[in-house]
């Protein structure tokens, strides 16, 4: 055959993309915006939502997704549904459903990484309001949260008090049930939202996968080539991610001199050199990154202020506080997660940041290359391998991308250092 297997598969992918129908949610880029997904879910679940269906959708959710045996319609119609519910330490639960005496927290994870003890914090807060509550953990495929999110080292969310549900199975099924009972004007919108969820979970790629499988199965040579490609795929992705990190090391050198940064390599805290090796071997991230000590930052105790470039699925950079004199299960040194007032005062004397900027151990952080905290398709996701990540396999694109990201680091982060 004139075409190689890769060329033929590329043609299949192009044809499938051309057959995609117009979808308003896709036009708005909602697939990469978890906050917007939660807002749509919040309105659908809200008995007073703009859908005009009262508590019907919420009742279906309680029955079809959470499998409540008895749902009191009179109680449910008075339920309060809140997106980004504010709790202690400025943390926000993605969705909360409150009925008479019941408090149901829903944590939604599509692409975002986990935060330390996140589920445990939500569990503690919710249990204080409703001793019988369970944490509902909604992900694309119904995966369990990691110990990093479930525990703080002394306490852990009991498995019996955790309900894992998926967009792929539970939410699509629920939305289809909602569509079946909806007014006619709501049905097209629900259909488009279902299609969007299918895109998020990869279901829309099933046709392309079937066609590709048929192409591969068409000959022994194609099957042999596909097996070789499959064996090499994770290695190829690791090589791309490593190349991106190495390009950052190279292009950050002028900023090292200009802002008195020192590349930290003695401790090697979650350094990309080792963490990339296992990044694609697990469902969870291994947080590969690059650490720079801000030498001009005079910190309290034995603390250091670090500028860190990190991949938590998506690429970002930020300032954080590290204690090289402490220890953890990772070895020498440990991150400072919870800033006491003295630490916060110290950070705020060095950086133009406020308490609201802090997230976990980050004093402040920004996605790359956008320099924003807002989710965007421009930010490469190295776990999902979105298009922004795939393009970085091209050396010219990679160099240009890193140059733009380094510029954003200087503009949106290093500009925060007080002089």
Number of domains: 2
Give the percentage of residues in beta strands.
15-25%
As a whole number of angstroms, the C-alpha radius of gyration is 24 Å
H/I helix tally? 16
Helix share, percent: 40-55%
Chain-averaged pLDDT:
87
Note the quaternary state here.
single chain
Report the structural category.
alpha+beta
Q: How many β-strand stretches?
A: 11
- The general outline is globular
Q: How can the largest sheet be summarized?
A: 6 strands, antiparallel
What are the low-pLDDT stretches, counting only 5+ consecutive residues below 50?
A: 16-20
Order of helices and strands: HHHHHEEEHEHEHHHHHEHEEEEHEHH
* Beginning-to-end CA distance, first to last residue: 65 Å
Structure description:
The chain is α+β, with helices and mostly antiparallel strands. It folds into two domains: 201 residues, no CATH class; 183 residues, no CATH class. The protein contains 16 helices and eleven strands. Strands 6, 7, 8, 9, 10 and 11 form a six-stranded antiparallel β-sheet that branches. Helix 4 runs antiparallel to helix 8 and helix 11 runs parallel beside helix 16. It comes from Hominiventricola filiformis. InterPro entries: PDDEXK_4. This is PD-(D/E)XK nuclease family protein.
